[in-house]
Amino acid sequence: MTGTPLAFLVVTLLTAAVNVAVAAADLAGARFVLVNSAEVGVPRSWLPRLAALKLAGAAGLLLGLFDAAPRLLGAAAACGLVLFYLGALAFHLRARVLHNLAFPGFCFATAVASLALTVSS
Fold first, then answer.
1. What is the pTM assigned to this prediction?
2. Rounded to the nearest 5°, which phi and psi values hold at 43?
3. How does pLDDT run across 102-113, given as a tens digit for each residue?
4. Fewer CB in a 10 Å sphere around the end CB: N or C, the chain?
5. Would you list the domain boundaries of the chain?
6. From CA 111, how far away is CA 45, in angstroms rounded?
7. Cα-based distances in Å from 104 to 33, 34, 53
């Protein structure tokens, strides 16, 4: 992590932490996750797989922070999270569930910021 710009470090850690927290809620079957997924038409059986994708993205972001790991891994993880949250936003829009669009929008924004900072650093 030598010479890592502060913004890159903070945004990457924030993105990873958010994804780990949401994945934990998915795996725990938190009430808000079950209600939200039902509203947008995501089957409950998808939740463990979606959690695994979020955890993989978070792990890739964290591994991309280290000098020994190729930065490309962090960029690929951020890109995967951007695509993941584009899908989440699409599910919300398709189902016309707009009252809670802010959370996947926030996750999308952190993933985009992580991707931009990874590529630029």
1. 0.91
2. -65, 145
3. 999 999 999 999
4. N
5. 6-120
6. 25
7. 12, 15, 15
Beta carbons within 8 Å of 94's beta carbon, 6+ residues apart: 40, 41
Length of the chain: 121
Q: What is the DSSP string of the chain?
A: -TT--HHHHHHHHHHHHHHHHHHHHHHHT-HHHHHHHHHHT--GGGHHHHHHHHHHHHHHHHHHTSTTS-HHHHHHHHHHHHHHHHHHHHHHHHTT--TTTHHHHHHHHHHHHHHHHHHH-
CA distance 32 to 57: 22
CA–CA dist 51, 49 (Å, integer): 5
CA distance 22 to 8: 21
Structure tokens at 50: 């979606």
pLDDT reading at 22 higher than 70? yes
